[in-house]
Amino acid sequence: MSVAANPCLSIAIARLRTGQENFAIWVLQAPLPGGYVHHDCIWSPSLTQKWLRWQEMFSLRELPHVPFANHPTQSIPLDGSFAGAPGGYGGRLMQDLGINLWQWLFEEPIRSSLAQSQGIAIGQNKPLRLRLEIRDPNLIPLPWEIMQPEAGKQAISLNQQILFSRTTSDVDPFLPPHSQEVLNILLVLGNNLEEAAMSASMTNLPRSYLELQKEAAALVKVIERSKGDNLFGTNEFAYSVPVRVDTLVQPTPAELIDALEFNNYNILFYSGHGITAPDGGLLFLRPDATINGTELAQVLVRTQVTLAVFNACWGAGPDRQGQHAIKRSSLAEVLIHHGVPAVLGMREEIADREALSFIETLTEALSQRMSIDMAVTLARQQLLTLYKFNQPAWTLPILYMHPEFDGELIKPLDEGITELPAMLPSLQEIPVPVALVRSLDENDKVWYIRGGLMRVGRRPENDLVIQERWVSQKHAEIISRDTLSGPDSQPAYFLRDFSRYGTLISSSQGWQKIHHQEVPLYSGVKLKFGSAYGQTLEFIIE
Fold this sequence. Notes:
Layout: E1 8-15, E2 22-29, E3 38-42, H1 45-58, H2 88-105, H3 110-123, E4 128-134, E5 162-167, E6 183-189, H4 193-196, H5 206-229, E7 243-249, H6 253-261, E8 267-271, E9 274-275, E10 282-286, E11 289-292, H7 293-302, E12 307-311, E13 320-321, E14 324-325, H8 331-338, E15 342-346, H9 352-367, H10 372-387, E16 397-401, E17 435-439, E18 446-449, E19 453-457, E20 464-465, E21 476-482, E22 491-497, E23 503-507, E24 510-514, E25 518-521, E26 526-529, E27 537-541
Parallel strand pairs: 1-4, 4-5, 6-7, 6-8, 8-12, 12-15, 19-20
Antiparallel strand pairs: 1-2, 2-3, 9-10, 10-11, 13-14, 15-16, 17-18, 17-27, 19-21, 21-22, 22-25, 23-24, 23-26, 26-27
Helix pairs in contact: 1-2, 5-9, 7-8, 9-10
């Protein structure tokens, strides 16, 4: 499924003043113009206390995290209305915080924007893609994935009708990943926790290395078994794609980079020890070798790895300076910032058996051509089924996705079917004037607008493909439709912008930028998509 096919609602959270509890919540992207709303609110001491109580129950090793140092740290009693929550005391804690986070985020008018977006998605018989951008690093450690509207309702990250992920808008543009018909996986086993605590001089550890070799072989079996299990019982199994796995056990950074450079991998699985650090965390490849997130990002972007999965402690958590979290310091955020399409990290350490269950289900879903966010939802459901709602396993995987990425790792079989907008004129009754777009930088480049619709963007299925980094995958459409009713009606052309960076249109006042708008097009108007540095195009009606 692509961004064009799935309605998308993107919500941002930012603190209004440093050191204060005042926040702004607003919609960055919505499937309808009225969905772009804004709401100011306060993070209450009660929410901090409930988060502390949740950590006391579920946090595995880290000391409790407090978003605001001036908030009291005494736990408060459970609300009696949650007495019927599943799983006893643990389930009540899970449900209590999940409902309170939902109520805080989806106050009016944000709630109405969500409801309208869900209505559009339901009307199109498609899931709604919901992305959350948390700009205050002190709120990143909270388990937003457990949000639920009320007792008895599904958590947001378990709902197949809402494909939930985190994102950040502070990103570099990225080129669309290479289309492949195979899951090409590089499995990297790095240093484990016990070895990382040893002296760097103790590099000769044959027993530990042999154990890691056995662990790698077991992981490969799990991944390959997922190809034959058909865990979901769908009819799509006959159309699933092959899975190929290569392994590296305790590689040097150079060996890891060489493997990525000389093979066409679309997935990286890393399992090993990791710690937080200001430059995107630190992965322990072997006792005497590490690689940080910023270094890893360069090679992942260069080799166009689409999905990076890290079974390492705190891969989705920010580093801290004293009591304050450091902005954009988590491994997941750093990789997304540099242009990696999708990153999945763990909020805390996950048990080996839980990680194996998650990887098996995730691989099976991806091999059946599901989008990455849908595959993560199904793998999370599997964790809940096996290890129960009142255990933290299903809350640990955190998915980040680049705001321009449509979630597709393998193209669905039905991709490429064109649906013309309902507003197009009846072509049998009213002749559409011949129109074209030509390049003013290259005189021989001309694109005719056929059937009253031209799609513009970076992806190859667009009618006008522009491979410039500031051009979005689905950037804009040029459409023809009636401007008057009755026998004298005549078609006219309009440009609709869907992009991240907007479209520049020439006028008597110079270049005018439009963004998420629709404007009429007149013959002779000049266009630039995404940036003033882009190529100049001219729209002509013959």
